[in-house]
Amino acid sequence: MESTLPPLFDHMDNVDISSPNDDTDIFKSAIQSNDVLSSPKDPAIMEDVITTSDERETDGHSIEITVDEPQKMGDGMNSYLVYKIVTKTNMTKFKRRQSIVNRRFSDFLGLHEQLVERYLRAGFIIPPAPSKNILGATKVKMGSQQNAESGTNNGQEWVENRRASLERFLNRISAHPTLRFDENFINFLESEQDLPRATNTAALSGAGVMRLFNKVGETVNKITYKMDENDVWFADKIAEIDTLDTQYQKLHIAVKSLVVHRQELAHLTGNVAKSAAMLSTCEEHVGLSKALSQLADIEEKIEILRSEQSNSDFYILSEMIKDYIGLLGAIKDVFHERVKVFQNWQHAQIQLTKKRENKAKIELSQRNDKLEPAQKEVEEWEAKVQRCQKEFEDISAEIKREVERFELNRAKDFKATIVKYLQDQMVFQKQILKYWEGYIPAAKEIA
Q1: Sequence-ordered alpha helix ranges (H) in 201-318
Q2: pLDDT for 323-348, tens place per residue?
Q3: pLDDT by residue (tens digit) across 156-203?
Q4: Element (H, E) at 66
Q5: 68: β partners
Q6: pTM, 2 dp
Q7: Is 118 within 8 Å of 157 (Cβ atoms)?
Q8: What does the alpha-carbon distance between residue 400 and residue 445 come to, in Å, rounded to a whole number?
Q9: Are 325 and 249 in contact (CB under 8 A)?
Q10: What percent of the residues of the chain are helix, what percent strand, and what percent coil, each to the nearest 5?
């Protein structure tokens, strides 16, 4: 069975905002607010919030990626979602100017693992892929039957949220001056054939269990091994990233709480509207009954506004903060990779010292038959020490360039997001004020 999952806010597609007297003109702003981070319909806004235009069009190269039309394939727990990816570009490494392919979520995770395997060791910050959500996926898998029984669109918001996250993930990769030309990334966007199944992304697979053990080992290594940092820049940046991560986590929790409370406020406002409407029907005073009926209408309209404010809080502010928490985690990963390279360098130096000591003992014992092999071992480890040192210097230099690029993008992203968010909130408040100002005459007519 194949069913198309519609995006959010479809009920507002035909709203006309041309007339200032239209009570529904605020809804268009809510749609635009949602589009900033979740809708592929406006590439200009996407570029402002996710990536800077100068990065996306370096040396005349441009690329625009949209993820759209999530479709449910199959039935029950064996079902899965497939996303349509549309790519438009003038890059010569791409075979076509426009490509349309279908990919499932595991394909995105597989692409991320390929990029990490190839570029993390070189010092590149790999944009994180959206995390798995077993509860949300289960709701979608079982959603058809539940929707038929309850008449609700169970899981639709989760699907839209994931679609938007996947789109941002691809656009962040396409904005990277190196990752955008990776052959795996290009194949992901262009190949019309199904990609090899990324079985190691399954949570309950053998590879998934091994990955869990590896993560535990990495965590223990991070805790137990402390690198003596001689580079002041890295010492300052590590502390700065840790502080930013902590504060972003707190801000994200606060914004999520704001979303919940705004939703509760919308629900309570709706209750007021219903109660006022019921009271107006049994009120014998004609003027008061009319005023209560109009009050119910106003409260009902404000309920919708509160709900759209909640959407603005979530899709513009909360999701952007969540993305940057993930990016800060990616920076920590590349910092740790540098520590691992340093460990290899130190290990090579220790081994070189041992080989030299062994060679010195052979020379003192005058065992000339073992002198030549010992000398070769010393030369091999000297070469390895040089390679490890160069690798450490290279990854350190690349990380500095990557963090500088990240900081420039972060400032621009936050500026565009905050400005858009404030503009939308001002529109919401003005509309509420307009509603109450229109109600004042009705209230004064009560005699």
Answers
A1: 206-224, 232-282, 286-312
A2: 999 999 999 999 999 999 999 999 99
A3: 788 888 999 999 999 999 999 999 999 999 999 998 887 776 655 554
A4: strand 63-73
A5: 84
A6: 0.77
A7: no
A8: 69
A9: yes
A10: 75, 5, 20
